[in-house]
Fold this protein.
Amino acid sequence: MAHTHTVRSSRVRLDASVAVWVPVALAGGVTLIAAIASLARESLSWHDSVGIALLVAAATLAEAFPVPIEGVAVGSTSLATIFLVAGATIYGWAAAAVAGFLTMALVELGRRRPFSRVAFNCGVYVLASGAAGAVADRFQDGTLLGLALGAIAAAIAFYVVNVPLLAAVVTRSRGVAFAPSLFSYVQLTFVPLAVMASLAVILVVLWDRSPFVAVVLVGPLLATALYQRWIHGALNRLREFDRLKDEFIAIVSHELRTPLTSVYGAAMTLEKQQLDESRQHELLEIISTEAARLSHLLDDILWVNRLDSGRARPHITPVEPLALTEEVVDAARTHLPDGLSVEVLHDSPLPQVAADADRLRQVLVNLVENAVKYSRAGRIQVRLGSHYGTVRFSVRDEGPGIPLSQQERIFEKFYRLDPNMTRGVGGTGLGLYICRELVDAMNGDIWVESAPGAGSTFSFELPVARAS
């Protein structure tokens, strides 16, 4: 009953469980053939045919768009079983088996699943739906109580077939014990079972009175599903904010501790010891450098706050890109480590760019300083060129490079390539996030091209300023 997409994750390899999925698929196929033959003998009326078709359509939509139930540790839950159980109770086992097959086949084929997975899941739904219909038939006595008890029994029967088969294929493919896993799945899926069994009873009772009246259940179900999705999404965003808050506190406290310790140590040494002029100059240099580092850290934090609150709107004007870039590079050259150089390469002539001069300078400073931080020696190239109505700025270094799997994430807030600082490179993980947000605000694009051991090239493009 509590059929979930967590259970059917891609980690479960059905091809490794031939001993489970093949028998299930074969049993489902035999049951499906028997169900089709039974329906052919019964000669369904058009009224019943339309009713079954409506339930199949509803079950297919519910299977294709599972609902996350907040507070239930079972992932996204398919509500398709509500309609399959209702169909089993109202139209019998044969109609339910065919409906179960059509529901799963349409969804799985639409998702282009492997054959083994399609065969197994279709077999499970055929067997579970057929069992639900067979059990429900035993309670049909023409009374409302019998109808409700039949729906409850059908829901339980669907669950008893569905969950053990899913547990069997999962445990077989992962090589774990069946009994403990089945017990865990039962614990996880008991609440969805109760919820969907109750809804199935309501649907069956309404459908018995009039299929048209039963349509009114669609509204509450749709509202419930949308509300659950909204609640789940909102809580996930709150959890993400909470995670970012914890990460922010951890990173900032670490980044603050290092410069504060250096400043404090240098100040205490200057205060309590008699030092020669050279040593005093070294300690004052430490205080100056670490104070600048603290200032830069606080500036990053303030900028992130401005960007997130929408208060960092750029003032776009025509800007000379080459002159501004050379100012940034000249400033960077004053504190380059030995063995590292920075050069500017550019097309000639370059058009003016539509940008906020201060924000453009900030982006270039961040990218150049980032290249300096990750380069022990070699050459950093800052290249400017005109590309189809835009001006492209590129900063290329000869550093360690960035793995392909991390290239999209490096522009995320607080993301760092070396969080444990095994390379001795610190940082808050805010610089590239600020660059991305500022470039976006100036109607530009930013990206990175890199490979491990081959350096990195950070590029961004801004539109050319229109002639006045």
User: Anything to note?
Assistant: The CA atoms of residues 130 and 203 lie 19 Å apart.
